[in-house]
């Protein structure tokens, strides 16, 4: 009975733990399903973007373990900040000159919507005036795997 109520919170905590290695994070989400969910949220103009930031490069970046962690840690944040963490080194700029520091849009409060016994959706619940991303999990044995992140804005 405790598993039923506590395991969704544990699933969120596993994905947002900064001490978990990137390799360990991959066990907590289904990269192909999350990638597909992001692709469905892209505007058609994304198909026309030139190299080096093509649709496939951005989708790979968004589903990188470090980006997934950032999406969960910062459910109110802009998708570009999380995706930047997953970009290949050659596309990431080391020069931070002129970059404005920003506050992370984090939460400690989560709302869990159960969909039967095999699925739940987690959403941040501490801001009445702002909606955050939502995270859909599916049961995999006695653990949960992230299968979709629904962003608050379209990917453009």
Jot down its keywords.
alpha+beta; four-stranded antiparallel sheet; 6 helices; 33% helix
Structural write-up:
A hairpin with a 3-residue loop joins strand 1 and strand 2 (119-124). The model has no long low-confidence stretch (mean pLDDT 86). By secondary structure, the protein is of the alpha+beta class. A 4-stranded antiparallel sheet has the order 1-2-3-4. It has 6 helices and 4 strands; from the N terminus they run H-H-H-H-H-H-E-E-E-E.
Radius of gyration: 16 Å
Topology order in helix (H) and strand (E) letters: HHHHHHEEEE
**Mean pLDDT rating:** 86
Structural class based on helices, strands and sheet pairing: alpha+beta
Q: What is the beta-strand fraction?
A: 15-25%
What is the number of helical segments per DSSP (H or I, 4+ residues)? 6
Main sheet overview: 4 strands, antiparallel
**Model regions low in confidence, pLDDT < 50 over at least 5 residues:** none
Molecular shape: globular
Helix/strand layout:
Blueprint lengths: L1 H15 L5 H4 L5 H10 L14 H8 L2 H9 L5 H6 L25 E6 L3 E6 L9 E7 L2 E8 L6
Antiparallel strand pairs: 1-2, 2-3, 3-4
Compact overview of the structure:
With 156 residues, the chain is an alpha+beta fold. Helices cover 33% and strands 17% of the residues. A 4-stranded antiparallel beta sheet has the order 1-2-3-4.
């Amino acid at each position: 009975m405790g598993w039923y109520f506590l395991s969704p919170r544990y699933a969120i905590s596993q994905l947002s733990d900064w001490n978990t290695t990137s390799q360990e994070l991959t066990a907590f989400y289904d990269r192909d399903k999350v990638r597909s969910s992001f692709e469905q949220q892209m505007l058609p103009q994304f198909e026309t973007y030139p190299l080096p930031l093509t649709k496939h490069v951005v989708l790979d970046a968004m589903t990188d373990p470090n980006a997934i962690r950032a999406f969960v840690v910062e459910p109110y944040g802009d998708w570009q900040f999380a995706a930047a963490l997953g970009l290949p080194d050659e596309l990431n700029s080391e020069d931070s000159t002129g970059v404005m520091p920003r506050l992370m849009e984090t939460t400690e409060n989560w709302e869990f919507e159960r969909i039967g016994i095999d699925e739940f959706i987690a959403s941040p619940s501490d801001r009445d005036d702002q909606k955050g991303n939502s995270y859909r999990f599916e049961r995999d044995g006695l653990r949960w795997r992230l299968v979709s992140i629904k962003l608050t804005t379209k990917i453009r």
